[in-house]
Amino acid sequence: MDRVFHALADATRRDILRRVLVDPASVSTIAGRYEMSFAAVQKHVAVLEQAHLVVKERRGRQQIVHGDVEAVRRATRLLTAMEEQWRARVGRMSVVLAELDTGHGPEVAGVSGPHPPVPLPGADRPTGGTS
Question: Tell me, what's the pLDDT at 131?
């Protein structure tokens, strides 16, 4: 999955993937859509291929690039699971913080009940302005 996210970290590769998922195209056709060298586009396609996000098919002298919908779905499922996990954690933190604010939460470091705001480090010092 690391290769997938590495491949998707680049805007050009994401754009190439979006295009070939909808309409498979030759590497030459893809290269014509970008203001970069053919070799640079070829490298982008190679990164997508190594991540198994695209598949190249040889048709005569051309290589047709197809997006792999199932690979995109796998990445989506992973991100969805991670999102659900973090949403659950944030939800639990919200409940704990609300309980602490009302004084009905668990004891924290041996102190129960409502807690005064914690001062920020350096908050009691002057800000450096002229007097």
Answer: 42
